[in-house]
Amino acid sequence: MEQQLAEFQSIYKQIEQYLVEYSFSLVGAVIILLLGLLLARKLGNMVEAFMVKHNIDVTLSRFTASAAKVLLMTMVAVIALGKLGVSVAPFVAAIGAVSLGAGLAMQRMLSNYAAGVTIVVTRPFVVGDTITVKGVSGVVKQVRLGNTILASEDDVRIMIPNHHIVGEIIHNSDHESIVEMTLDVAYGCDPLKAVELIKVAIAAQAGVSTARAPQVGIQDFGANGYTLGLRYWTATAHLFQTRVQTNAAIHTTLQQNAIAIAVPQRDVRMLPPQGQ
């Protein structure tokens, strides 16, 4: 019992001595932590408000604000520990080692985030645009920090990691898609008349864009007839529906005006056997 009492008195004296020597430092460290917490909160709110004011993506704004808070609180904690006489060198080394390991482990994720920041800042496309990248097409529904979400004509959600977008060739046709095709009409027909009829038939379709006129003309002279090139624009959400109904209208128009669609033709000659 006396031994335990002696140990308790020894511990009490050590605590008392520590408080006497470091009481002001302890109060200072607490004040530093409280002020740091307050400043970190204000800094985070200021960063987020500034980025939102300049129309920067909300996800990026919140992520940057949180990162600023954590960074400032880490610096304040290191200063407070130094105020208490604790050596901060091991903590700094540990933070560096953890950061290096986390960076190597999350290399792909960090590359997605960096690409997401690039997309938000440079804005090669915005929500509502129709883009094609790496052979995938769709309407941009959401630009996240790590990935971009597209929606196809069938409302299939396509998630593309952002590092697959930055540095690639991007086709951006705003909210519309272009339809390109060719059609062969027989050489016995008037190609210019066919061009005008097809232009009218395309422009009359409900889903075809009225902002840009359809483009139709003689693209080539094929082996079987005149090759007409057709281009028109339509909303991506109704691409297939507009294309099939436009094709039907073109076919009907050509039939009604006696313009024949060219078909492959081959002349077969029967040669007599040799010696006859």
List how many beta strands DSSP finds. Answer: 8
The structural domain count equals 3
Tell me what portion of residues adopts beta-strand conformation: 15-25%
Output the CATH topology of the largest domain: Helix Hairpins
- pLDDT averaged residue by residue: 80
Secondary-structure arrangement, i.e. CATH architecture of the largest domain: Orthogonal Bundle
The helix-strand sequence is HHHHEEEEEEHEEH
Structure commentary:
The model has no long low-confidence stretch (mean pLDDT 80). This protein has helices at residues 2-53, 58-83, 89-105, 107-122, 191-203, 239-256; strands spanning 130-133, 136-143, 147-151, 157-161, 170-172, 176-186, 215-221, 225-235. The strands form 2 sheets. The chain has a 5-stranded antiparallel beta sheet with strand order 4-3-2-1-5. It has a 3-stranded antiparallel beta sheet with strand order 6-8-7. The protein has 3 domains: 2-105, Helix Hairpins (Orthogonal Bundle); 125-172, Roll (SH3 type barrels); 176-256, Alpha-Beta Plaits. It has 6 helices and 8 strands. 17% of the residues are buried. The chain is elongated, with a radius of gyration of 36 Å. The longest helix is centred in the N-terminal third of the chain and has 52 residues, at 2-53. The protein is an alpha+beta fold.
